[in-house]
């Protein structure tokens, strides 16, 4: 039971402050969720379906954002699938085969591997491939592909141990701005099409034993003090965004602050 209208999230290199126009009440959220669960498929309207997909996408993106920014990353990695080995049109087959490879890689090459992995549904509306942020690659074989990125300053590697398809691994710049942009890039893969195709299934994975999580604090601040609080942050912010929340009749203001 309780409510909040301000939430702070402390990441590795930045702090985010979220202001909600209307307080978020814990108990009402649970009641609404339980009410939705009671509806049968026949009772669900298109509005209910769209609402469920949008809210699911928002939760997924928020969790990915939080985990990614709470950690430092060394490589942005892409994994594709050879159709002779993996049915890249079958999400379950992609997940099963990839996780078999990932488990073996951790056991043999990189027991301290840190990762966040998200799928991408191809523009052809048929196939999947995976993207990841990774660190602590251990003895995974990074092979120079001969290609370069960012005006020749970054080597594009291939992972020699990965044999389910093609792979690339690109070094990530160690600053909050670059890592934030890459996280934003990864979130673009969480689309409505992907959310619809993967309902009831996992849409991201992370190494629970090696990934850190942000420190989250919530507050309920009176409206007259809230305005002064927001005004005081204006000069120090590195980023600001306002997000409309039509399904909950609310509005969210987001302020980011670099701390590195």
Poorly predicted parts: none
Alpha carbon gap, first and last residue: 35 Å
Reading side by side through the largest sheet, how are the strands ordered? Answer: 10-1-2-12-11
Order of helices and strands: EEHHEHEEEEEHHEEHEE
- The counted number of beta strands is 12
Structural class: alpha+beta
- Largest sheet report: 5 strands, antiparallel
Q: Provide the gyration radius in Å.
A: 21 Å
Give an account of the 3D structure:
This protein has 260 residues and is of the alpha+beta class. α2 packs antiparallel against α4. It has a five-stranded antiparallel beta sheet with strand order 10-1-2-12-11. It has helices at residues 26-38, 46-69, 91-108, 176-187, 192-197, 223-233; strands spanning 3-10, 14-25, 75-79, 114-121, 128-135, 142-149, 154-159, 167-171, 205-206, 215-219, 239-245, 250-258. The protein is globular. The protein is built from six helices and twelve strands.
């Amino acid at each position: 039971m309780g409510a909040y209208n301000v939430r702070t999230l402390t990441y590795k290199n930045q702090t985010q402050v979220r202001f909600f126009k209307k307080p978020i009440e814990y108990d009402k959220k649970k009641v609404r969720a339980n009410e939705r669960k009671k509806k049968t498929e026949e009772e669900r309207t298109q509005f209910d379906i769209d609402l469920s997909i949008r809210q699911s996408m928002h939760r997924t993106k928020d969790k990915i954002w939080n985990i990614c920014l709470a950690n430092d990353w060394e490589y942005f990695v892409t994994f594709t699938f050879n159709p002779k080995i993996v049915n890249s049109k079958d999400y379950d087959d992609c997940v099963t085969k990839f996780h078999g490879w990932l488990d073996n890689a951790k056991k043999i090459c990189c027991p301290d591997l840190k990762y966040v992995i998200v799928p991408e549904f191809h523009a052809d509306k048929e196939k999947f491939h995976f993207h990841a942020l990774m660190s602590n690659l251990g003895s995974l074989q990074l092979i120079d592909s001969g290609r370069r990125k960012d005006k020749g300053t970054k080597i594009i590697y291939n992972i020699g141990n990965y044999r389910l398809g093609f792979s690339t691994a690109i070094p990530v710049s160690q600053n909050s701005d670059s890592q934030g942009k890459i996280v934003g890039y990864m979130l673009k893969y969480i689309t409505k099409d992907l959310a619809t195709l993967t309902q009831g299934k996992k849409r991201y994975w992370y190494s629970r034993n090696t990934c850190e999580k942000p420190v989250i604090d919530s507050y309920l601040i009176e409206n007259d003090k809230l305005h002064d609080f927001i005004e005081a942050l204006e000069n120090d912010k590195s980023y600001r965004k306002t997000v409309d929340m039509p399904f909950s009749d609310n509005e969210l203001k987001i302020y980011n602050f670099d701390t590195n």
